[in-house]
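Hey L., structure's done. Input below.
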Amino acid sequence: MTVRRLYLPGASGDARIWQPLSDLLPEADSRFISWPGLGNQPHDPAITGFDALTPLAESHMGDGPVDIFAQSMGGVIALHLARKYPKRVRKLILAVTSGGFDMSGIDRFNWRPDYRRNFPNAANWITDYAPPAATDLPDVTQPCLLLFGDNDPISPVETGYRLKSMLPDARLYIVSGGAHDLIHSHANHLAPVVSDFLKA
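Output:
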């Protein structure tokens, strides 16, 4: 059976951040889900907050097995879908994300002021809302590949180590020099790592 690939972005809203990596992977039924109203994406009156993004992603899953690729904020949604559909979500590729766990104690850069300057028309809720801290990450039993960079002030590499410790079946891959856009900037480096993970 064909496995669909679902690509989810972070707060930039633009799923094309995954395109360079996707282009280097074996061909698949791929769906790129951008977030309306975030970054420079057009607004959608139906998307009024973070909680509306999960049903949007869910509507693109199809009926068969799914591998979910998610960056940053998108990782929170990916893990929610993995818990909700343990038999349909096959594997998770999660880049520079906390997955929603409480990041207290991790020294990180506050991205919100820069985000507002770079995306003045983005929906207000993106910088005001914080999803509830995830406490059920051990319920995610699917294999997870965690991609982090050692030069990311927004999701420091310590985030990856902590997330790995919470997930039952996770491997952590650290990109030297990788920042928050590593899935785009280091696509050539990551492609064989991700391809091997998908085949395993």
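Strands lie at 4-8, 29-32, 66-71, 89-95, 144-149, 170-175. The helical segments are 19-24, 53-58, 74-84, 112-118, 125-128, 157-166, 182-185, 187-199.

-- N.
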